[in-house]
Design goal:
Rossmann fold, alpha/beta, 14% strand, 278 residues
């Protein structure tokens, strides 16, 4: 007996979907039949993702509606409008994936170099932005969706494997993402009776544009070599995981952190972050 995941009739918004992990998540949700609002700060990238998905869904025969919603989610009012616009155009909201996160303007830096401005920036662009996105999405789900405790509605927060271990050189980023894990659990408790599941997923080292720019190739190779599976996390693996979590197969899953890190958390000899202490 085969089991196929079919998200036909479901609706989703994916933030940061103009490239990288967010784009791949949006692609996989559409392949599974979900209609998707592709949210990004850059209109050109959002439209690139939409065009790519539309070509694919025709090939696989999915009946997904896909469109771009463009806004600067760092603006509270803009974030609220973005989510409301997506829910209105989709005529509902069942799935929300929060994939926005930044290292901050300084990227990687030792703790001794992180001043108040750096801390506030990395917390705002990760923890605060995700928490406000979750709030707007849950409100839209309750207003437009079915609710009712059936677990059909789900919010997935993309955090980081850096939340599971000390993160030399990435203390601010790791702490902000770890706080998102905590907010995820709290939201799972508060919103579970309303029919909304909330889950965090943590990729391992994934070769996004940001990672490629921030970390030298030899360091990435060393991280890969340190994992039990001797590999990095691929973009499509996060997309497949989100499709599973959005499906009825996962309707009993809420709260907690699901690692997709090739076992990096178990590594005993992880190299020090460039620019930080070894």
């Amino acid at each position: 007996m085969s089991i196929a995941i079919d998200l036909s009739g479901r609706t989703a918004i994916v933030t940061g979907a103009g490239a990288g992990i967010g784009r791949e998540i949006a692609r996989w949700l559409a392949r599974a039949g979900s209609s998707v609002a592709v949210a990004d700060i850059r209109a050109d990238r959002a439209e690139e993702t939409v065009a790519l998905i539309l070509d694919e869904v025709v090939e696989v025969g999915a009946k997904s509606e896909v469109f771009a919603v463009v806004a600067d989610a760092r603006d509270d009012a803009g974030l609220k409008r973005m989510v409301e616009s997506a829910a209105y155009q989709l005529d509902g909201l069942d799935i929300a994936v929060n994939n926005i996160g930044m290292l901050g303007p300084r990227g990687s830096a030792p703790l001794l170099d992180l001043d108040g401005e750096a801390w506030r920036d990395v917390l705002d662009q990760n923890l605060v932005l995700t928490a406000l996105s979750m709030r707007a999405e849950a409100k839209a789900m309750l207003e437009y969706g079915s609710g009712g405790g059936d677990g059909q509605q789900v919010i997935v927060n993309v955090t980081s494997g850096e939340t599971t271990r000390p993160a030399p050189g990435l203390a601010g980023y790791g702490a902000a993402k770890a706080a998102i894990n905590h907010v995820t659990d709290t939201a799972a408790v508060e919103w579970g009776p309303l029919g909304i599941r909330v889950v965090a997923i943590a990729p391992g080292t994934t070769l996004t544009e940001t990672v490629a720019e921030a970390l030298p190739p030899d360091y990435i190779d060393a991280v890969v070599a340190s994992t039990p599976l001797r590999r990095r996390t691929e973009h499509d693996e996060l997309g497949r995981l989100v499709v599973f979590l959005a499906s009825d197969l996962a309707r009993c899953i809420t709260g907690g952190l699901i690692l997709a890190d090739a076992g990096a958390r178990l590594a005993r000899n992880r190299p020090g972050i460039p620019g930080g202490p070894d």
